[in-house]
Specification:
Blueprint: H1 4-17, H2 41-60, E1 65-66, H3 67-75, H4 83-93, E2 99-105, E3 108-114, E4 120-122, E5 128-131, H5 133-143, H6 151-163, H7 170-193, H8 203-215, H9 218-221, H10 229-232
Helix pairs in contact: 2-3, 2-4, 6-7, 6-8
């Protein structure tokens, strides 16, 4: 598990969540040194133990896993992992914290409170652990590959949402797909202008084909599966 993408998208949002600034005060934001250890040790342990919990969940059907088994697995990658350090990390991951946010639905704004933030669940009677639903989502998001070469797959997801009538998900799929193509196209154009990419290079036709398939997912969506009822009609 690579937690850095999650940190990139959440660090400044958490800064705003935790801000002590009084509304209406100066807009100046002073760059700060983030507190804590600069060696990444605890984050590394967290990623390793979350990966271990995911693997054990696959084998056991999300049953609880003992601390000793987790320590052995973590030490396969972090040989000198201290048991107390790992327990500390698990204690942090298992502890919920309170978040406040505004949810908007049209013109209606609602202040919501959420404490479902613990990634790990611990038994009260033993030193056993397993991933929570939020923990499983975190591992899945961290391992999700968001790249231009997968834009065609995103287009197929969009088509599937339409076929299933899940129209609430359609705008998000459209926005994500358009952003991927738009930003990658701009980046590719800049690379060509700088001479870093040859217009006749072997890789360029492949990218163009991805863009073509993503723009017209119907050309690939029915391959290997039965047509929808609407199509048969």
């Amino acid at each position: 598990m690579n937690c850095l993408p999650l940190l990139r998208v959440s660090a400044r949002l958490l800064d705003l969540h935790d801000s002590q600034r009084v509304p209406g005060n100066s807009p100046v934001y002073t760059q700060e040194d983030r507190p804590g250890r600069p060696d990444g040790r605890y984050l590394d342990l967290a990623c390793l133990v979350l990966d271990a919990l995911r693997d054990f969940a696959h084998e056991s059907g999300n049953a609880f896993t003992g601390f000793d088994a987790l320590l052995i697995t973590v030490r396969e990658h972090f040989a000198d992992a201290d048991p107390d350090d790992l327990r500390y990390v698990l204690n942090v991951l298992a502890r919920p914290t309170e978040l406040w946010a505004v949810e908007r639905d049209g013109d209606k704004a609602t202040l919501v409170r959420d404490k479902q933030t613990n990634l790990v669940e611990r038994t009260h009677y033993a030193d056993d652990y397993r991933l929570t639903a939020v923990g499983r989502a975190a591992v899945s998001i961290a391992s999700n590959i968001a790249g231009f070469v997968y834009a065609e797959g995103d287009a197929l997801k969009l088509l599937r949402a339409i076929e299933m009538g899940d129209f609430a998900a359609v705008p998000a799929f459209c926005d994500g797909l358009l952003d991927t193509i738009r930003y990658t196209s701009v980046g590719l154009r800049q690379e060509i202008e700088r001479g870093h990419v040859d217009r006749e290079s072997d890789g360029l036709p492949g990218r163009c084909q991805v863009a073509a398939n993503a723009s017209d997912p119907g050309t690939r969506s029915t391959r290997g599966r039965a047509p929808s009822p609407a199509a048969r009609a």
